[in-house]
Fold:
Amino acid sequence: MHTIQLLSVPAQTLRLRWPPAAADEGVFRDLCRANPDYRIELNARGEIEIMPPTGGLTGRKNTKLLSALDIWSERDGRGETFDSSTGFRLPDGATRSPDASWVRRDRLAALAAADKEGFLPLAPDFVVELRSISDSLGTIQAKMNEYLTNGVRLGWLLDPAARQVFVYRPGEPVQCLTGLECISGEPELPGFVLDLRRIWEPGF
Structure:
């Protein structure tokens, strides 16, 4: 097993350019396992992206988001919720870890047992990214477009500082909604309504 370790915390996202032979799935998986405190992704160009841990406020907001999605998912029963530590191998070769995501159960059932143990080889049906104050809006918007290109049916980019929600759907212009107290996942997520007040407010 490779034992690559990061010995310092990056202040912002780092991008490492590796030779194609080094940036294969096995090496990437070992890198993630050796550094569990970091959020590490692989983009479609084969570059390793290393992001610093989230701050307390962002972590709390993400917990509220994930909790609301999971409660709805358990009640709905047609899919599963995944947290920000879950890797998805997208069709374009990138491996991404959305802050929160949801996948239909029938798509998960079609996966082999080995695929379920590793990074899931599919794009989620629904993804959410939560912007922190250190995140570049343009970078996250590019990631949201990447999700759509790879098959995501609905995506939300939440920007608490501006109290804005960017809504992404395939084949439709991006919607920028401001001043909302709640947002519905209809029709892709029937019955799911996120109370944005739990995201906009600091929480502690």
The chain has two domains: 14-51, 56-200. The domain at 56-200 is CATH 3.90.1570.10 (tt1808, chain A).
